[in-house]
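Recap quiz, item 2
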Amino acid sequence: MVALADTPVLAGDRSIRARRVAFGLAGLLLLTSLLSLSHGASGVRLDLVLQSWLAGHDVPARDWLILWEIRLPRMLTGVLVGASLAVGGAVMQGLFRNPLADPGLVGVGAGAGLGAVLAIVLGGQAPAWVAAWLGWNMVPVAAFMGGWLSTMVLYRVSTRAGRTSTATMLLAGIALGALAGAATGILVYVADDRQLRDLTFWGLGSLGGASWPKIAAAGPVMLLALLAAPFLARGLNGLSLGEAAAHHIGLPVQRVKHVAILTVAAATGAAVAVSGGIGFIGIVVPHLLRLATGPDHRYLLVNAALLGATLLLLADLIARSIIAPAELPIGIVTAVIGAPVFLWILLRRRGLVDL
Amino acid sequence: MLTNRSLHASLGRTAVLHGITTSAAPGRIVAVIGPNGSGKTTLLRAISGDVAYDGRIALDGADLADLKPWELAARRGVLPQAATLAFPFTVAEVVRLGLTSGTQADRSDLIGRALAEVDLTGFSGRYYQELSGGQQARVQLARVRAQVWDPVVAGRPRWLFLDEPVAALDIAHQIGVMRVLRRFADAGGGVVIVLHDLNLAAMVADDVWLIHDGLLLDAGSPARVIGGSALAEAYGCPIVANRLPGPQATFVLPHGLWAAAG
Amino acid sequence: MIRQIAAGLVVAVALAPTAFADTPSRVIAAGGSVAEIIHALGAGDRLIARDTTSTFPPALESLPDIGYVRALSSENLIAMAPDIVIAEHDAGPPEVLDVLQRSGIALVMAPQALDPDGVAAKIDAVATALNLPDAGAALQARVAAQLEQARIAGDALPRSPRVMFILSMQGGRLLVGGAGTSAEAMILLAGGTNAVTALDGYKPLTDEAAIAADPDLILMMDRGGDHAVVLADIIAHPALRLTRAAIDQRIVSMDGLYLLGFGPRTGAAALELNTHLRRLTDEVKG
C-alpha cells in the first residue's frame, strides 16, 4: 500500500496508484470488448470481416448480422449493465456508509423485479395499444418503472423536511422489499407454468436478449447514471465521515444524497430491466477496488465502472460458450464466481471494523 | 466576530437552548463549560450550522443561515464529539478530506504539516481504523486544521469549533493540542471549544461560557467564571476554586468527598 | 462508417428471405413434440440439434442440446447453420427468434395443441415446413385414427372417473394440474374428469382441498424413479392417503413428454390412460 514511499508523494496517498489502475482497467476493458466482439460459436472473425470490408470486398450478410445485430448489442449491453451494476453498488455503499449495502437492500431491486413479474404475468392482458407500443420492451420498461417507483416511495417515506434519514430509508427499504416480494408472490401464484419458467430465467439474468431497441430504451438511462456518478465522488467521500462532518467540510449533503439516490435508481433499475437479476457485481467489484486502491470515490467510481463492465463481459463469454449450443444464464456465472470471492474477502478481512 | 442573539434550539420535541445571547472574538479561545445535558454540544452544533435554531447567529458579519455549506467550510472547521469513518481510508486520505472545499483543495502539503502539528508524522500511510482512539482523535483534528489552516485569510479570521477534542488524549497530547489552539488564536483565528475538564478550561481559555439548562449562566474570564459562585450552582455540588501561585491560573477541586468524610 | 454498416445491414435483411432451400436438410427442433413429429415423419436424420425437452425417441439425446426452449442463444444457433428451426409455440426469447429469421434461417412456430384438431394442425405445420406433405398426411391419418380410437374408448366408459394430475409433491406440497392445462386435456381425452377444476394452470393445492377433490385415480409424471417409492409417498401423504385413489392404490405414472406433449403418441397415451380408467370402472362395477 505504501509502495510509493520513494517518490515525493506522501505515504498513504493512493491516488497515483488508483490512476494507474484506472488506465490498466481501461485497457483490460478494451481487450475484453474486442474479445467479446470477436468470439462466438459462429466463428465469424472481427478482424477478417473488417479487413475484407476495408479492402472493399463484400462481407457476407450473415457475418454482418452476427457482428452488428448479435455481438455488438450484446457487448454494449454487457458494458453498460456491468458498469451500471458496479457503480450503482458503489454509490449505494457510499450513501449508506456500509460496504455491504446493495441496491437490493433498499427495495430498488425488488421494485424492479415486481415490475418485470407484472409485465410477464399480466402483460398478455395489457391493452392492445400498450402491447403494440412497448412490444418486446414491456418487461424491461416495467422493471425500470418498478425500480423508479419504489425509489420514489422510499424517498417520500424516509425524507422529512428535506432531510433523509439513512436508518429510516434502510428500514423502509426492507419493508418495501417485503411488500414487493409479497406482490410478486401473489403474481407468481396467478402465473401459469410457462410464465413461471420465464420468471425463473429472468431472475437468473441473461444478456441473451440484447438488441438495439433494448439499448435504445435503457442505454441512455444507464449512461446518464454513469456520467452523473463521478460528480458524486467528493460528496460520497465526505459522507464517509458522517453527514455532520460532510456538511462541516463544505458539502451540500442533502443534494448529494438526492443525486446519489437517483443515480442508484437509474443505474440499477435500467440494468435489471435489460438483463434481469445479475448478482454480486455491485458488491464484489467495489470491494475488490477498495482493497486495491482505497475507498476514495474519485477513483473508486470510475474504476468500478471499468472493472464491472470487464467482469460482466468475461462472465458473458463463459455463459455463452461453456454449454454451447445452449447458453447458461449469466446470473449463475456471476454468482458462482462472485459468491466465493465475496466469502474469501469476508474471511480475509474478518475482525477488521472497516470490513 | 461570532455573535449569537437569543438562540433557541430543540432536539426533537425537547427544547434544549432557551435563549442564549453571547459573542466570541477572534484571537481568543472561548471554552464552553457546563454540566451534562446543559446544552453545550447543542450550542456548538448550532453555531456549526448543524441544527435548526431560532434567533440569529452571525459569523464575521454574515448571517449563518445565508452561508452555503462550502462558504461556511471556508470560514470555519468543526470537530464533532464522536468522529466516525466508514471505509478503510489511510490517515493521509482522511486528512485530505479536510481539503474537500474552499481555496486550498490543491494544497496537498497541508496534509503532512497538519499531521506534524498533532504529532503524527510518519503515520500518514497507516489505516485510520488501526489507530488507537487517541490517535484517531488527533487525525480528525489534523483534518479540521487542514481545512482552515491559515488563521486569517484576506483579513477575515477563521474559526475552529471543537467538541471535547482532548477527551481521549493522554496529558502530553492534551497539552500539545492546546498549544495548537493557542497558536491559532494568537495568529488571529477564533476558537470555541467545549470542555469538561474545568482545569484545562481555566488553563487554556481567554473567555469561559458557563451553560446551564440551556441558558448562559455566566460568561467572562476563567478567574471570574470558574472562580465564581455560579459554577457550584450549575453543577449542583460544592467546588473549591483556587489559584496557582506562579502563573496565577485558576484550578478547582471537587469538595464533596472530603465534606462527606468530614 | 456507421452509415456504411447500416447499409450493409439493409443488404443483409434484403437477402435473408431468399436464403433458405425448399426442402430443408439441416433442421433444429425446439420442443419435445416437434422433434417427435419430425422423427415420425421419417425426417429424423435431418435433425442437427434439439432442445432440452426433446427426449424421444432416445436417439435424439445424442444430438447437441441447444438449451431450454425459452432461452435460446442466437449466435450459437446461427453457428450450427440450420436451414430451418422448428419450434414449439412458446419458444423464445423473441429477440433471438427475430435475429434468427433475419440471418436467413427459416423459423416455423408450431401451433399449441390441446385436442385432436390441435395435434393435426401441429403435424401439418411441421410437415409443411419440411416439405413432406405425403408423410404429413399419412402421420395425421395414423394419429387421428388412434385419437378416434381413444375417443371411442373414452365414451365407452360407464362413468367418467375423477383423475388428479400431480406435477410434483416436493416436501409433501402438492402441485396439481388445474383447468386449462395439458394434463386436463389428456384426462378428458382418455374419458376421465379432472378432479381439480377450481384452479387455473399448475398450482399448489391445499391438503384439505385434495381430500375434498377425492380423485379415483392419481396421475403423475414418470421421473425415472421407482414406482413403488411414489406409491409409498402417496400412501403416506396425510391428505392423499384419505382419497379413493390412494385407498385403492390407483396411481399411474407416465412419461411426461408422452403424456403431455400432444405429439404423435398422444393417441397411444390417451388409450393407455383409458385402459387404467376402464380397469377402474370395471372393478367398481364388479
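Chain B has one domain: 2-217.
Chains B and C do not touch (no CB pair under 8 Å).
End of item.
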